[in-house]
Structures are given as C-alpha cells and as structure tokens.
Amino acid sequence: MHTSTSPSRVTSTLVALMVALVLGATGFFAQSVQAQTNDTDAQIQELFNLIAVLQAQLLKLQNSVNTTDSSSGTSVSEGGFGTTGIMVDGRVQTTNLLRVRSGAGVNASWINNVSALTQGSVVDGPRTADGYRWWHVAYDSGTSGWSAENWLQSIRSVETENNSENLSDQIFQIDSFSANVRGFDDIHGPHVDFRWRTSGAIRCSVLYGNTVVEPSEPADGSATLSRTLLREKYGIAEFDERSTFELRCQSAYTEKDSTVSAYKTLTIGPKLVEISSFKASVTDEAGPEVTLRWKSEGTSGCNAFLNGKLTADNLDSSDTHVLSRAVMSAKFGASYKEGNNEFELRCQSAYTGKDSTVSAYDTITLNQTATFRAILNDQVVETEDGVNWFAAEDLCKVAYNNYETYDFKGGDVLECEWNNEVFHEQDGWKG
C-alpha cells in the first residue's frame, strides 16, 4: 500500500537534505586541506559516495508524492500543492499525467489515468484527505473521478496567464435579454419566449417574482415558459396581467454568488377567451346533415345547440362535427325544421368557473327544392318537381297510403327518392 507524504513534510525534508549536502561537501574539503597526505582519488570517491546517498534520499521522497502506473511504468501524479481559481461548474485542465480515483484520498480505488492538458468540468469538491485537496472532475476524455488539486489548473487561470490579463479586467455583463408573448393555445394558455446573450457568464436562470422558473440555462440561450408549466411545476396559477421576468447570470470569473441581472416586463392579460370562427354548412340535404366547423381560444370545451336545444356535447375547443338527424333525434330529441335553422356554439372559459361561457351563432336554411319520385317495385308511380326535403318526406307518406293495398311484407318494395337520392325504402311500413 502506498503511504502519502504531506507537502509540508516533503518541502522541509528536501531543504534539510540540500543543507546537509552543502555542509557535507564543505566539511570534506576542509579535511582535505588539513590532510595533504591523503590520496586525491580516495577523497574524490568519498565525495561521490556522499552525493549518491543524498540523491537516493531525494528520489525516495519524490516517489512518496508520485505513484507509478503498473501497466506502463510511467510516473503518475497523485497530488501536492494547491492552486487557485478552481470551483464547482468551472473548467480545469491537467498539468501532468494524472491519476483519477473513485473518491477523495490516496486509498480510494484507481479508475484511470488522464494525460497532461486534458480538460474537464468540475462537478464536486473540494474535499481534504491525506493532506491534499481533491476535486471531482468529469474529463472531456470520458473519465470521471477525483484528482488532487496540485496537478489541476483552472482554464480561466490558464487563459489569463496566456493573455497576460488580470481577472479584474474581464467583462461580465448581460448583452441582451428579450421576452415575447406568443398567443394562447387550447391547452397550455399563453407562452413566453426568452432569448439572451452574455459576456463572462457561466450560466443563467430566469425568475418570475422570487421563483426560479428556468434554472441552470446556458450563458447564451433561450427558454419557453407556458402557463401549464408555471401551474404544474411551480404552483403559480396564472401569469399576472403585467408580469416582470428577471434573467440572473453567474460570473465565470468569481465566486458562484457573484451575479448580474436584467429585467423585462410584459403585458400578458387580460385572458383571451373567444370563438375565432364558427360555420354551419349543409353537407347532405337528403339526410339532412349539417357540418359544424369552429376554432376557439382560451376555452376548455364546447356544446352545440339547434334552435335552442342541445344537439351535441363534450366537443373539443377546435374541431369539426357532423349533426346527423338520426343521432340528434335519438340522443337529444332534436330535429331540423323547414326554413331557417339557428345553430349556436357555446364554449366554456378555461380560466374561470364552469358558468363562464362565450357563444357564436350561424343560421342555415333547409329549403332546397328538387324532384320527388315514388318508385314501386322499380316502377316510378309518383313524380313532383320543385319540392324541398320536408315536403318530399310528406309525399313519401302519401305515396305509401296510396299503395297500401300492396303487400310490402310479402315482397313489394316502395322507394322514395329526392334530388336523385333514395331517402326511404319501405317493405314493411304501416304508417
């Protein structure tokens, strides 16, 4: 097991050995002056022996702060003297081939080695163990673990040294910050889009009041805040009609509590609740069938009414729906009438109680005229031109009564046709 030696102990021992080397050499030469009869070669050999002993001691101490990669025999740095400028979320690079461990301390298991000048992001630390400060670094090479601070250097410090600049000269500011409201959609309500650019920031956050609503965003970036996110994630029911947003950015050069802010105030309300379009159109006169098409904003659902009577419920906020005569009659007891038919679309507000609604109206006239024909056993027996659908229905009943002597159950068939379409086929109708 490798036993670590603290930096202060290494330093003091190295100094002591260097003094001993100088004093030993001085004493040796003093003795050589007093003993002129000694053999010159023996004196020189004794001096070399003393130097060799001191060199061995120096090498031993050096190995106490370096370990060796067993696979390659390369000296790998373990740790040592601290550097400045390293902090969590900052960027660092190695200054030597460096060992990466699973935890802080020389006894933590070895993960991998990273080469000199490998860069990475600091995710945790510092922690002090075995006389060293340790940082958890996620290296760009893919290795992640704890390394001693001695062989790490802040990239900010490297850039500053290379450019011969002082940290106090670095620019730290928000260059631009914009916020814009996008229109309501049917589900999520209004959206606010943010964009920003900064100089000298490491990351930014967007705040609404005192609540951080977009945390840990990049120094240059964008974000979108919806009413649904505001409500479900942060417990804020609605945007204020006048809403102020703050962009708060952290400096890349100083401690993490050094920030700068910019503000934007937007008019978001009042809440928009409206039916933007509503149209009723006849899609099948012979049915008849009427198709409703609509779009609404700020609503949670709609119902359709025909001449004041409910004819369709639980409709989406924007959709298309076909009103079938058969379905209306069976489910709601509603029916079309000859002439003008008024349709109402009534939608509920998504922002207030269930009694808060908006309505839109459209009117269509069911009075198209066409030719009616009654066909008995494939033979035309009645014909009348210029009748509307409701009159055609009455004529069909009359035709049945006129030919009631036929045995429709026995195989005779009466068909009623209007506008070249069969709308009734009778083989058992008795009135």
CATH architecture of the largest domain: Sandwich
Quickly name the level 1 CATH class of the largest domain. Answer: Mainly Beta
In total, the number of domains comes to 5
Please report the number of helical segments: 6
Largest sheet: 5 strands, antiparallel
Strand-pairing-aware structural class: alpha+beta
Specify the overall morphology. Answer: elongated
The percent of residues in helical segments reads 10-25%
Distance between the termini: 106 Å
Strand order of the largest sheet: 8-7-6-3-9
Relative strand content: over 45%
Mean pLDDT: 74
Radius of gyration: 45 Å
* Secondary structure: number of strands: 27
Q: CATH topology of the largest domain, which one?
A: Immunoglobulin-like
User: Uncertain regions: pLDDT < 50 for 5+ in a row?
Assistant: 1-13, 28-38, 62-83, 157-168
